[in-house]
Amino acid sequence: MNVGFSLNISKEIEVLFNKLVSIRSDTGTVLEKDVEEYIYNWISKIEYFNNNPQMYGKYPLKNDYLGRSVVWALLKGNGKRTVILLHHHDVVDALDYGSLMEYAYSPDLLKEKLHLLGISKDVKSDLDSGEWIFGRGTADMKAGAAIQLTLLKQYSKIKDFNGNILLLSVPDEEALSSGMREGVNLLVELKHQYELDYTIIINSEPHEREKSNIGALYEGSVGKIMPLIYVRGKKAHIKDVFSGFNPMILLNEIVKRTELNPDFSDVIGDEVSPPPSWLYSRDRKKFYDVSIPEAAGGYFNILTLKRTPKDILKQLKEICEEATKDVTNFVSSNYEGFKKKTKIQGNKLKLQIKVKSFNELYGEALSNSGEKFVKDYTRTIEKIKDDIQNNKISIPESTFVIIEKTLEYVKDLSPMVIIAFSPPYYPHVSNIDFKGLSKAVLNLNDTINDFSKHSWNEEYKKYNYFMGISDMSYVALTSSEEVIPYIGPNMPLWGNLYNIPFEHMKELSIPAINIGPWGKDLHKLSERVLKRDLLERTPKLIKLAIENLLKG
């Protein structure tokens, strides 16, 4: 089999990389289409794809108000064995660059300007070394895009190529991963149309290092779920606080019991997911008045390696119920103390607070109000769609609005805790969950590590999970019976503004590996990528992986 070629492509990678970086492609904006159009046109000029226009294209995202697409290209050789190259072409915005924002996409100019800032010793050392390229998207992930595209072009020149290479360049990875969620459907279509056997998917997100001579390979990706807690209280004037219930007390107690709680950290071998942290927590008051807030809410992230939405919902219910009991006792105790001071006679405070999942709340509203509820619920969803498109409301805030609309149709007016999930959801995925993997896939880490040690005296350590969250989450689905019945029913936006092609993910079940360049300070103004990885080492490692996986 002949799949080899001389890898003197550093200059070509560099030219493409600089061009891609220069094209601003802020995630969640129409700017993503600019880099998408460039990549599409760049592929069209490759002789193979110019002669075979049916083998590349744009795959539009369904119902995407920005009109974005997945750019794809299939190099069809002999046989079914197929390696998928995956990267995203969006980047986070450059607002953090402040006065240097105009230089964020011009690495040469930015390098001169960064010296004017009070940068750290580590950043200054890398800046002075000339070994790093600074700029927005340099590491995350225009470097990976440039490497993969250039390799695709080189492989397209080979005649009688054994195997196939499918490239996917997706939008929106930094926001809701709309690109990859739609890309899953494309993968299924191409698989059936061209009778492809997907051997592996190679992502090229940058990796970070603890030691300069030890790189990282990731054979999976951490999961992420965002629980949203809504607490309905009971409104009252502040002169008569015990006639109501302040939901902030309970929300704060739930935050206290979950923030940085290591009980939420999964452990697989020596890999541990970070504990959760709250992103938002406050009352639901729109304006000032002298009354207790009617409701409060917040949301936080949980990263997973093995626990499912079923597990997390159960754990959160238990925590919320325990918090409810303690808060009820706290309020009752203070009421008794207040009665003693005022010498008033009165019955004991009767405070009952229920804890429900959104699925349970929705079912109750449907049972109480039927078709009237469904019509109003649908109208609310349609308005939210317009508001999101016009940047009038965020995804989590829209979830609060839907919960409040649902509560309007529930007869029970007592204080309540509602547990829901807000998009996005990323299932955890790892090759350790697969059975019957080929030796080429199982030994890929050792193959790469041996090559790297021999070539550059540099090791590569294998991790089962990429902790930075990535699109690799959507190429397979494990424990589907503990995912599918718990995500959709408890996610108010499900099926309207957000969904995941779970069945197609189950069908694909593709093992994955992340082979990317060394990067630092992702999403910061000091974001940078190691030049030698971009131009030489990472391309060689990906080429080595492709050839080992396609050789029979």
Task: Describe this protein's structure.
This is Arginine utilization protein RocB. GO terms for molecular function: hydrolase activity. InterPro entries: Peptidase_M20, Peptidase_M20A, Uncharacterised_RocB. The protein has 552 residues and is an alpha/beta fold. It folds into two domains: 301 residues, Aminopeptidase; 203 residues, Alpha-Beta Plaits (2-Layer Sandwich), CATH 3.30.70.360. Helices cover 40% and strands 20% of the residues. It has 16 helices and 20 strands. The strands form six sheets. Strands 1-2-5-3-6-18 form a six-stranded mixed sheet, with helices on both faces. A hairpin with a 7-residue loop joins strand 19 and strand 20. Helix 7 packs across helix 15, helix 8 packs across helix 9 and helix 13 packs across helix 16. The longest helix has 34 residues. It is elongated, with a radius of gyration of 26 Å. The N and C termini lie close together (9 Å). The model has no long low-confidence stretch (mean pLDDT 95).
